[in-house]
Fold these 4 entries.
Entry 1:
Amino acid sequence: MTNQKLLGNVPGASGIEAPHGKRAWLKWMGRGALLPLALAAGASPPLRAAGGPRADYFPNSVVQTHDGRSLRFYDDVVRGRVVLFNMMYAVCTGICPGNTANLREVQAALGSRLGKDVFMVSMTLQPESDTPEVLSDYVEQYDIKPGWLFLTGKPREMDLIRRKLGFFNDDPNIDGDLTNHTGMLRLGNERLDRWSMMPALAKPDQIARNVLEA
């Protein structure tokens, strides 16, 4: 995997497609095109984020962690950090269990670096039912160790964040089908504005190496 500016289409990335190719995707990301749409649909206006390469792109919405904390998405989750994102939901019986098991090995490979200078974040696709308590049970069920956050929040704002991270399909029927959700990871170094994608089922040591070199 080669780090690069926020990616457009990734070959083989089912369910993740950039709007009309890489150039349009980059232009779209730079403008933060989805924010006005989300606000018009009822999402609460995010507070202005502290400065950084993507402060004007990512929303600063309030999200809740599986351990009951409230965070600002840009300020507390993204700003200045190396972060590995994936999408999941607690009752998923398709790709989620395998992805979670593989990412547990990634977590182990990252060792003491995790939670200090690199971070793992899983975001629910079902915020309506995946409360912090439900996500906490999920963490316990899969014996996930500290340093890996699971996030939920208001549905419209979680959907906006998902789309900003590139986890969407242009076809609304495909995009709305949870059983067809993406099995990709988004890796970002926000301080250097470097972003890439890779399969969640890639070899754990390969994923960990890419995180540490991001």
Note: The longest strand covers residues 82-88.
Entry 2:
Amino acid sequence: MKTLKRIIFPTVSDLMTEAPMTIGVGLSIADAHERMYLNNIHHLVVVDKQRIVGTLSTRQIYLLSSLSLLDPKQIRVASAMTKPYLCTPETPLIEVAHTMEANRNECVVAVDGGHAAGILTTTDILRALRTMLLGIEVAPQVEPTHQPDLPQERQKIPHHTRLADSAPKSANGRALGGAMNISLPTN
């Protein structure tokens, strides 16, 4: 059970996805897109000789693919990546959220011993907000298929599998933590 201090002052490790997927700087953005699609993720940690040198998101890939006259197979990850925002797994979440907002970062890479221990994205932070607002732990709406402890052969999960059907239900049968229709009073 988490301590009260941990609940009040969460750290990156409380919300991050452990063992994030990586990609080498020399691969193409077509390779990166395929890796993201097959694993149902939106961010990759870019490495060069085991050193973290950047991050790459589907947003960057889509932008480059739509603007470029080049074939995505010819565009290297090194030219599409952004400078990574790095922290430790024990960095307070409030500090990370402040920096992410100020710099409009989509993700932060938690580094431990020089390696990517985890990745925290805006989606992870939104799930934490849903948990806070509902007062209960909520399941992710979309689950990445990449998981660090899976055996060599893993089950294929369709892209964008929604988990709302398996989410806990309220007394009126609605999925808790799922999409909510909110009506605001008008004056």
Note: The two ends are 44 Å apart (CA to CA).
Entry 3:
Amino acid sequence: MLVGSQQKLQDDIRALVERHGRTRDALLPILQDLQAAQSCVPDFAMQVVADELGLHPAEVYGVVSFYAFLDHRPRGRFVMRLCRTISCELARTAPVARQLENELGIAFGETTRDGRFTLEWAACLGLCDQGPALLVNDRVYTKVTPDRVHAIVEDCRKVFGAHAAQPSAPSAPVHPAAHPQPALAAAKG
């Protein structure tokens, strides 16, 4: 990270601290805002947050590594989480998963090279009666079929195209995930 971009990130973090406060309970909202703005919480940012809040850097890293919606690795503009609970598995998640991988050209736990899409598993989306369930950022899709996958991905691509003039998340390298990712601010498992 260049010195200028580090300084900007430091200034952005200080502004978040001013907005959320310097208490321990401000840690999660600060990290969530950083994740939204940066597509990840970089190591440098964790150190700055720790310094600003008077915490040990290991505490900040522990929070980032614990929650599924936080990551120190860059994620795509669209994070697609497919539920893999037994209820969704019985509703035929496997063909939907294969179609998502085929449509995006990546496996679960990876991000497309253009930084548009990240594909992850979710432990549970709480929609057991409407599976297979898919969460794309904050939008929920229920009773997803392989046929619907193309339309869902195309809707995301259209949104990305509409915002192409705006700065987007930096191109993220493909990265493997070692384990499934739970959803809705649940603990990583």
Note: The first strand starts at residue 78 and ends at 83.
Entry 4:
Amino acid sequence: MPRAVRNIDVRIIKALRRAALPLARGALFIVYFWFGTLKLFGASPANPLIGELLDRAMPFLSFDTFIIGFAIYEMLIGVFFLAPGFERVATALLVPHLCVTALPLVFLPSLTWAGLFVPTLEGQYIVKNLVIIALAFGLAAQLRPVSSKKSPRAAAKLRKNEVSVSLRGIRPLAQNK
């Protein structure tokens, strides 16, 4: 590869690396806060599916009560992804949320599957959550381990095991110096 092309490639990759985390945080915020707001105001196209799921899986819960709590929960996930230092909280809230949002694939197959491995529009809406999982986990993978002031040896061990991703591949940070 010519040096000029490689230099351009390196510059583009560096710019993308600088932009990736803020874009991921912003995208997760927009999706969760926006969709939560739609649910809160009864404007979400997912509300009928949620109502059907509640009737089938949790008939003891009132839709009006559940949808308010679910909407606020989604909005909090969005806010926590946007707020620096709260990514761990957002990821912890995301896991049960995505488990609940996947339930229609099991409990409402007539609404989510048109055939074997052929999702309906609602099913596609749910399956796309795999992208959200990948994005959230990618963001979480960039976090620094929680360090303990009481245990400098443990913090040093964590730093020793950190890795660097470069154009040459993945290597322990110690080899990059």
Note: The two ends are 26 Å apart (CA to CA).
